[in-house]
Amino acid sequence: MTNFTRRSAMASAIALGAAITANGALAQDLPVLRLSSVVSENDIRAEAFQNISDAVSDTFDLQVYNGATLVEQGSELTAMQRGNLDIGLVAPQAIANQIPEWSILTAAYVLQDVDHLETVFDSEVGEELNAMAEEAGIHILAPVYFGSRQVNLKPEIDVQTPEDLNGVTMRMPGGDSWQFLGTAIGAKPTPLAYAEVYTALQTGAIDGQDNPLPNDYNMKFYEVTSQIVLMNHLVGFDVLAIANDVWEGMTAEQQEMLSSAVDEAIAESTQRHLDREEELISFFEEEGLRVYEPDRAAFREFAREAYLNSEFAESWPEGMLDTINELGESAE
Question: In this structure, are residues 154 and 200 in contact, taking their beta carbons and an 8 Å threshold?
């Protein structure tokens, strides 16, 4: 089936599902929406996606596929563009690969916290970035927060400024933007598969890694490290997006139903992540790790200069960084 034919069929199915209210065989044939994510089944976000599915179950058969079992990680955007996926959890870094302007949201210390993240997406900046996404074939339903990234180290060194990370081998995800993030906080970045990080820390092949606290817990990195530096250098989020053709094939009532279900489920997920981060600080301290805040202002200024003097900033819309900074002040 061609992409055009599949999309036309999807739109027809959605319209048919809305039109049929009587009982009978057709009333049971709800239009199918397939959602793909990389999160594990025990992830807070997996529960949120199931809550969305339950909330729209009278109108859609929303099937959730977690663990990248439907679409390979990193290919969600392309799958939606090609008509092979309806809804996907997409990393902003993946969007930035196609829309360079989006890279502003992947830079260190541009976003301060989850309130700032939500304020940006609700602002004219969010409207501008979302419009770019629309042109690329997807409609953004919501940003999905999963924790702020913190630095987790094996060496017992005191980290207060970027200079203290000079020469520290920091595992970062693969890709230019991720590697530059490591440089922008003063470390020596090295790419390494996520599954190999524990052993690399244990053997001393790397000095540290950065992840949200729930990831540190799930992967048991605290067993082979000595400290967590609460840098908050990157607000971790993905976006839940839907293919334009699928979205535009819905009635206004269906769009509102889906949007409301997403907003409610993601708001609950966000709060649960924030609560979990607070709980884990105490847990890590009880496990014997030193947990502390560095001079974040020093890191923020160092990162700002690094990005503004890099090729990444060349694609940022003029004035957008200043606007985002102003929105951060209003969100405080």
Answer: no
Close Cβ partners of 301 (under 8 Å, ≥ 6 residues apart): none
Kind plus residue range of the DSSP H or E element containing 236: strand 227-243
**Burial of 149 per CB tally in 10 Å (0-12, 13-18, 19+):** buried
Quote the tokens at residue 153.
């180290």
Residue 243 belongs to domain with CATH number:
3.40.190.170
Contacts of 167 (CB under 8 A, 6+ apart): 188
When divided into structural domains, the chain yields a total of: 1
Tokens of 225: 């490290």
77 by Cβ neighbours in 10 Å (0-12 / 13-18 / 19+) ranks as buried
Distance from C-alpha of 137 to C-alpha of 81, rounded to nearest angstrom: 6
Q: What is d(CA 217, CA 278) in angstroms, rounded to the nearest whole number?
A: 13
pTM summary value? 0.85
Q: Which of 91, 36, 90 is nearest to 63 (CA)?
A: 36
Residues 131 and 68: their CA atoms lie apart, in Å, by: 27
Q: For residues 113 and 235, is the Cβ–Cβ distance under 8 A?
A: yes
302-313: pLDDT as tens digits: 999 999 999 999
Other C-beta atoms lying within 10 Å of the C-beta of residue 143 = 22
Q: Which domain holds residue 218?
A: 3-331
Whose CA is closest to 152, among 177, 176, 124, 172? 172
Report the C-alpha gap between 38 and 259 in whole angstroms. Answer: 21
- Which residue, 213, 237, 233, is CA-closest to 225? 213
Express each pLDDT in 62-80 by its tens digit: 999 999 999 998 899 999 9
Provide the token pair at 257: 């139903």
